[in-house]
Structures are given as structure tokens and as C-alpha cells.
Amino acid sequence: xxxxxxxxxxxxxxxxxxxxxxxxxxxxxxxxxxxxxxxxxxxxxxxxxxxxxxxxxxxxxxxxxxxxxxxxxxxxxxxxxxxxxxxxxxxxxxxxxxxxxx
Length: 102
Hints:
By secondary structure, this protein is α+β, with helices and mostly antiparallel strands. It contains two helices and three strands, in the order αβββα. Residues 12-72 form the DUF6788 domain.
């Protein structure tokens, strides 16, 4: 009886983790990847979003008025990527605990 309760609890937790992973993966699709770099030319500062596309490094210009917003989006992406790694570890632990019980 007690084992069934544990199995049920672990299954529910795994389902919760799977839902969260799916939600975070969808959120990642909306956020820019890469890093923001600044280049100074004379008195002006130019902002670029740099990211990899296969082996190529893409550098996309960002207007100064949008730079802070894009920077926040990149930071949010990093946070979500960290959350995804953590959730994947949790899922692996749950799967290991359920091994042989399902």
C-alpha cells in the first residue's frame, strides 16, 4: 500500500515536470538566443545580438532603443535554460525511481 502511494506521488511529480518542460520549451522558442555585444564608433554605441547558426556566427543589429528589452529577453532565456536543465535532472531521478515499478 505504501509503495503504491510513493509510486503514485512520483508519477504525479514526473507529469508535473513534463508539463513544465513543455511550457518552458515553448517559451524558449519566443526568446532570442545569443549574447548582446556593444561596439563603439566615435561617440555612438551600436548593439548587436550574436548567436550561432550551425557553424556560422550571426551578428544582428539592434537599435539602441530596443537594446535593453532584448538584453532582458536574453537573460530570461538563460534563466529558462537553467530551469530546463534542473527539471531534466528531476525527471531523470523520477524515471530512475520508477524503474521496475511500472
